[in-house]
Design brief:
CATH class of chain A: Mainly Alpha
CATH topology of chain B: MetI-like fold
Largest sheet of chain B: 2 strands, antiparallel
Radius of gyration of chain B: 28 Å
Order of helices and strands of chain B: HHHEEHHHHHHHH
CATH superfamily of chain B: MetI-like
Shape of chain B: globular
Distance between the termini of chain A: 47 Å
Shape of chain A: globular
Number of domains of chain A: 1
CATH superfamily of chain A: MetI-like
Radius of gyration of chain A: 23 Å
Order of helices and strands of chain A: HHHEEHHHHHHHHH
Largest interface: A-B, 84 and 89 residues
Strand order of the largest sheet of chain B: 1-2
Number of helices of chain B: 11
CATH class of chain B: Mainly Alpha
Helix content of chain B: over 70%
Oligomer: heterodimer
CATH topology of chain A: MetI-like fold
Number of strands of chain B: 2
Strand order of the largest sheet of chain A: 1-2
Strand content of chain A: under 5%
Largest sheet of chain A: 2 strands, antiparallel
Number of domains of chain B: 1
Structural class of chain A: mainly alpha
């Protein structure tokens, strides 16, 4: 009896620890809202989300419209996805289906190392090497711009997309592929018509997670995107995505002043977007979970 | 069917045979082309890593010297070394692991060993996945709001530990779960059959065999914390501090923040370029070194496991 009581206590203790992640998530939300909501006492929700002017430090006439920041975040993420999705999925297909074990033993660590490069290092690379390169060879006026940031971000989300997609491709039951081979299909035909369609929900999850990583990535856009808080009119415009604005201005914003609250409110928007993306990814991976050929 | 009957089946006409081979060749060519494209994608990804690391090594190696690693910055950070940043980064990342490891391992044990598939498990997992997706700058604001301001810790090592600790939590939970999954079910059954309780089984059987995998995870966690910038810029790291940290309430300098500050905010950005390259090289050597170690450790574990 004493033994079983002890067991129950231990189990409850583990449950309590496991809830930490949820508690932290809740605390993050509470603190963002606590510091962010006061924003709407001096600017309306509509003016905040759709206002075109972000002049938080203007003494006489400060403006707190974050539409340029939202558009910048969206543009940078969309452009980087154009590159990162094909590259990431192709990497995953190669690793899961084509690479020999020996090639895999080299390529997989390469992808993992790319994932582990600190974002500040990638940002630094984009600043000191990619930006002058773009100016010299593409005749771009400003090297720190939307395209440069998108390119750097793409290399940060490729590993995420690749590793999650690879798991999904691995999870496709062997008998499906064998059935296709037995019907005389080539490896490519099997891949395109059987394996990839069966792994599609997992690949979808991978893409969403990769995009979510790109939206929230801070140091790269802070250092490389250029920092102009205007709606971009070309792929070479300097932009100021939400994370860059928060990271750059927080240090100077007076504690609990209007600017400080507006930055927290921007973080609220950013948090909501990534939360939405992550819940969507979770929904995808559960809704279409591939547990065997029977569930196809 | 007799042998004669089989033999008497007419062979397909030659023409149709040659048509199929032609189509087969086209299919093979298509496959070859497609697989070459996949190889191309791999080459691009590998080239990205080689180019980034290569440029930093080529430009940074000349800055590295014993003095650079062991001296303090001098003359407005335009000369001298980066010793305080190295110390700060090591302190922050090791401390963050001390916060994240117990919490993460315990969470993973609950999720893998105790929880039954159901609503509780689903919600906890959703929480972990979402925590993993929170942008690092949001972690920074959270740390600023809770640890620095509300708990009144100020910009300090302790606030940095707690912020980085919760940031690394999902990494630790993920890798620990993987380590627990690799422990064969027969180990648990053998222990339970001998009359061990669930906790005794976990403590004496499951955890010891999962330990190397957990170690791998914690190395990955440390390297993640070491490279993190946005989460410490409001909670622990400062632009410049003349003294070395002497308590958990001191603020510190850190390698990633040092790179950022020198590359963007310094008054002598061009002049300090060698220091920036050198600092970036030290940081990636630290981070990639730890990752390589973890990858090799994992490969060794898998070989041992399959034997």
């Amino acid at each position: 009896m004493r033994r079983s009581t002890k067991e129950i206590i231990i189990k409850q203790a583990f449950l309590a620890t496991a809830v930490t992640s949820l508690a932290v998530l809740a605390l993050i939300m509470i603190f963002l809202f606590m510091e962010g909501l006061p924003t709407f006492s001096f600017v309306s929700v509509k003016d905040f989300l759709f206002g075109l002017d972000w002049y938080p430090t203007d003494e006489a006439n400060p403006a707190y419209g974050i539409l340029p920041l939202i558009v910048a975040s969206g543009a940078v993420t969309a452009l980087s996805s154009l590159l990162a999705i094909p590259l990431g999925v192709m990497t995953a297909v190669y690793l899961a289906e084509i690479a020999s074990p020996r090639v895999r033993a080299v390529v997989k660590p390469v992808v993992e190392m790319l994932a582990s490069l600190p974002s500040v290092v990638i940002g630094f690379f984009g600043m000191v090497i990619m930006a002058p390169f773009l100016q010299d060879y593409f005749g771009v006026a400003v090297g720190l711009n939307l395209s440069n940031a998108a390119l750097m971000l793409a290399f940060m989300s490729v590993p995420t997309i690749a590793s999650v997609s690879e798991d999904a491709i691995y999870a496709v039951p062997r008998d499906l592929k064998e059935a296709s081979f037995a019907l005389g299909a080539t490896h490519l035909e099997t891949l395109a018509r059987v394996t990839l369609p069966a792994a599609l929900s997992g690949i979808g999850t991978a893409v969403i997670l990769g995009m979510s990583r790109a939206i929230g990535e801070t140091m790269v856009v802070l250092m490389v995107a250029g920092g102009a808080a205007v709606i971009p009119n070309s792929l070479w415009s300097p932009v100021r995505p939400m994370p860059a604005s928060i990271a750059a201005e927080m240090a100077e914003a007076p504690f609990r002043g209007h600017h400080y609250h507006a930055l927290f409110a921007t973080a609220m928007v950013l948090f909501m977007v990534t939360l939405f993306f992550n819940i969507l990814a979770d929904y995808f991976s559960h809704k279409h979970q591939q547990s065997g050929s029977a569930s196809l | 069917m007799t042998a004669e009957a089989i033999l008497s089946i007419p062979t397909p006409p030659r023409q149709s045979l040659s048509v199929t081979t032609g189509r087969d060749r086209a299919r093979k060519t298509k496959q070859w082309l497609a697989f070459m494209m996949l190889r191309g994608a791999i080459l691009i990804v590998a080239a990205a890593l080689v180019v980034i690391v290569g440029f930093l090594v080529i430009n940074g190696i000349s800055s590295i010297s014993w003095g650079f690693l062991t001296e303090v910055p001098r003359n407005n950070m335009t000369e001298g070394g980066i010793w305080p940043c190295i110390v700060g980064t090591l302190l922050l990342s090791l401390g963050a692991m001390a916060v994240a490891l117990p919490l993460g391992v315990a969470s993973a044990i609950y999720l893998h060993e105790y929880a039954l598939p159901g609503r509780t498990m689903r919600i906890i997992r959703l929480g972990v996945n979402n925590l993993a997706g929170v942008p690092s700058v949001v972690f920074g604001l959270f740390g600023l709001g809770l640890f620095v301001t509300a708990m009144n810790l100020g910009v300090s090592i302790l606030a940095g530990w707690l912020t980085l600790g919760v940031l690394c939590l999902p990494v630790i939970i993920g890798t620990t779960e993987e380590a627990l999954r690799s422990v064969p079910a027969t180990y648990r059954e053998a222990s339970l059959a001998l009359g061990g309780t669930k906790w005794q089984t976990i403590w004496r059987v499951v955890l010891p065999s999962a330990l190397p995998g957990i170690l791998t995870g914690s190395i990955l966690g440390i390297s993640r914390a070491a490279g993190e910038t946005a989460a410490i810029m409001f909670t622990a790291a400062v632009f410049y501090t003349p003294k070395m940290p002497n308590s958990i309430f001191s603020d510190v300098m850190a390698l990633p923040y040092h790179i950022y500050v020198l590359a963007t905010a310094g008054t002598e950005i061009e002049k300090t370029r060698p220091i920036q390259y050198g600092t970036a090289l030290v940081l990636i050597a630290l981070v990639l070194g730890m990752n390589l170690f973890a990858i090799i450790l994992r490969a060794w574990l898998q070989r041992r496991g399959s034997r």
